[in-house]
């Protein structure tokens, strides 16, 4: 099993990452922390509690993160995720309370208590991850195995022409994480845009008869509608965040390449663009394993099987 801490901003696809992490015995979800991103920090924290309540995972410690990105003002994504951050389903009220700790304190406590190294998975802006590395660098070097994140892109953007949302929200945090020196695995838009769930597959979710699948059916339908705009050229909805957990469960589903990745924080048009040195033009050693493609049917099967787990 892989021990993980999931730092997320739920968020429809974050809720799918939580689903994969809870439903699969290969993953040992030690703690969940939340970031400001898709919605305000109060809402993403509440959404993590509601999602874990739905998933009957109320013993997992949860803590809320920093109120804002490190430098930029917070920009949220209500057009993608709705006013609640998880529009489209009736989720249960939180059945448990967050820890009386900040996100970075919960990460530190979890790492200290773990005898094994832990993977930090980040599916929102990197604010908490960066703060943790800055405040607890030795603990991070001693106890973090790697950081697996959804963010950035090689030549694509979904929030600005060449800028992905998670990195857009907190480029300075991404800069700290990418240059800290821990092994990194990146799930950029290049792979997540291939991780589309098609409409007939969403219908198949609707056919799974348990309360968890019913809720995710509502979430997927809401999330799919934003991506119906023909400008994207999508068949369904890109399931960004669960690519991180799917990689930890079964890396053979993915095609990857190792390269140096950094982030632009100054650019007039490109602040938040991830600069991926695919052809090794800088001579800098590779710091990141970048997911580039995946076996989509196997990925979708993993999602459906995870939902059936609650039958
Ligand atoms: C990322 O942005 C958020 O809206 C999603 O949850 C995902 O983490 C995709 O760009
Ligand atoms: Ca997210």
UniProtKB/TrEMBL annotation:
Single GO MF descriptor: purine nucleosidase activity
Organism the protein comes from: Limosilactobacillus ingluviei
The keyword Hydrolase is annotated on this UniProt entry: yes
Keyword Hydrolase: yes
Entry-linked InterPro entries: Inosine/uridine_hydrolase_dom, IUNH, Ribo_hydro-like
Pfam families: IU_nuc_hydro (PF01156)
GO biological process: purine nucleoside catabolic process
PANTHER family: INOSINE-URIDINE PREFERRING NUCLEOSIDE HYDROLASE, URIDINE NUCLEOSIDASE
Keyword tags: Glycosidase, Hydrolase
A GO cellular-component term linked to this record: cytosol
Span of domain Inosine/uridine-preferring nucleoside hydrolase: 4-300
Protein name: Inosine-uridine nucleoside n-ribohydrolase
